[in-house]
Design a protein that fits this description.
It is a single chain. The protein is mainly alpha-helical. It is 81% helix and 0% strand. The chain is built from 7 helices and no strands. The longest helix is centred in the first third of the chain and has 36 residues. The two termini are 30 Å apart.
Length: 175
C-alpha cells in the first residue's frame, strides 16, 4: 500500500468518525438538550406531552430523523467509495487524490453541520410556542455545530479549489 493510499484512508476514517459524532451529537441535541434548554425547569416528559397535545410532535421527530438518515447515508457512501470498500469504486478513489478526498470530506462535514439548524427548527419552534418562556433560540452546542459547519464548508470549498488548481497544473493536457 502506498503512502498516499494510507494517508487517504486515514483522512476518510477521520471524516467518517467526525461525521458519526456530529450526527449523534446533533440528534441528542435536538431531542434532549434543546427542549430542556428552551423550557428550563420543565421535565422532558412534560415537554413531550405538551408537544403531543398540540400535534407538533410528529414534525419535531420527523425533521431530525430525516436529517440523520440523509446525512448518515451520504457519510456511509463517502466512506464506502473513498476507502474503497469494493473494487467497483477503485476508479473513483484513484481519480480523487488526497487533497480532493479531504476537500469532499470537509465539505460533507460542513454541510451536515450547517443543516443541523433545519433538523432542530421544528423542535425549537414548537417548544417555544407551547411552553414558557417562549423565547426560542438554540443550545450552545447547536450554535457550535451550525457555525462549525459553515466554517468547515468554506474550508472545504477552498481545499476543493486548491485541489482543482494543483490537479490542472500536474495534468499533461494542461501543458
Amino acid at each position: 500500500m502506498t503512502r498516499n493510499m494510507m494517508s487517504r484512508r486515514i483522512v476518510v476514517a477521520t471524516v467518517g468518525v467526525l461525521l458519526a459524532a456530529l450526527l449523534v451529537l446533533g440528534t441528542i441535541d435536538t431531542f434532549l438538550w434543546l427542549p430542556q434548554y428552551l423550557a428550563p425547569g420543565i421535565p422532558l416528559s412534560r415537554i413531550y406531552a405538551a408537544l403531543a397535545a398540540s400535534s407538533d410532535l410528529p414534525s419535531c421527530i420527523l425533521s431530525p430523523v430525516i436529517w440523520l438518515v440523509f446525512w448518515g447515508v451520504l457519510a456511509a457512501g463517502y466512506v464506502a467509495v473513498m476507502l474503497p470498500v469494493h473494487a467497483t469504486f477503485a476508479p473513483v478513489t484513484d481519480a480523487a487524490r488526497l487533497l480532493g478526498t479531504t476537500a469532499i470530506g470537509v465539505l460533507l462535514i460542513g454541510a451536515t453541520g450547517f443543516f443541523h439548524f433545519w433538523s432542530a427548527f421544528a423542535m425549537g419552534m414548537s417548544v417555544s410556542d407551547e411552553l414558557p418562556p417562549g423565547a426560542g433560540g438554540t443550545t450552545p452546542l447547536g450554535t457550535v455545530i451550525v457555525t462549525g459547519g459553515m466554517l468547515a464548508g468554506v474550508a472545504g470549498l477552498l481545499l476543493g479549489v486548491v485541489a482543482l488548481v494543483t490537479r490542472r497544473r500536474r495534468s499533461p493536457a494542461a501543458a
